[in-house]
Amino acid sequence: MAKFWNFVFFQAGWFACVIGAANQQVFWPVVATLLYIAIHIWHSPRPISELKLLAKAGLFGAAVDTLIANLGFLSFENSWPSAYLSPVWMWTLWALVASTVNSSLAWLRDRPILGAVLGAIAGPMSYEAGVRMGAGAWGANGQIGGLILLGLAWGIAIPLFFYWDRPTVGSDPLKNPL
């Protein structure tokens, strides 16, 4: 049942942030989504590991989206905190995706190729949906190039998130699984 609720809250957070961005009202959707993420971390069996995963995913996403936007393939509504960075509501969404790694997407854990394929398809579809809902726009360099870059980024992201979440045996790097 927890996986079901993780999926439901993921969808609710995604819609709230995207609709909020489209309407220049992202503060409360981001606060609510971050509250869910905090509760998710609190209830996690390994809260520190979960926090680290979500932080890494948020930073990865901020870098990816900032790069794609600065290359002229994508622009976002409500660009706080800077016109040169992807917006904070997108960082929140990347952390929200990572919150599914140990829950509703856990079935992908030992299937990195399937995770890459699904990420490469679902990631760009999510951006396209967000653009159609008014939370962003395709940039001057075009929709096709943007979708290809997003497909590559998300094809890497999903297996990478599972890699970051792998259990470690101890502090000795030689004993940790690759």
Spell out the blueprint of helices and strands.
Blueprint: H1 2-22, H2 27-42, H3 47-70, E1 74-76, H4 88-98, H5 112-132, E2 136-138, H6 143-164
Antiparallel strand pairs: 1-2
Helix pairs in contact: 1-2, 1-4, 2-4, 3-4, 3-6, 5-6
Order of helices and strands: HHHEHHEH
Major sheet: arrangement of strands: 1-2
Helix content: 55-70%
Helix count?
6
Explain what the structure shows.
It contains 6 helices and 2 strands, in the order αααβααβα. The protein has 178 residues and is mainly α. The mean pLDDT is 93.
List the keywords.
65% helix, globular, two-stranded antiparallel ribbon, 178 residues, mainly alpha
Short description:
This protein has helices at 2-22, 27-42, 47-70, 88-98, 112-132, 143-164; strands at 74-76, 136-138.
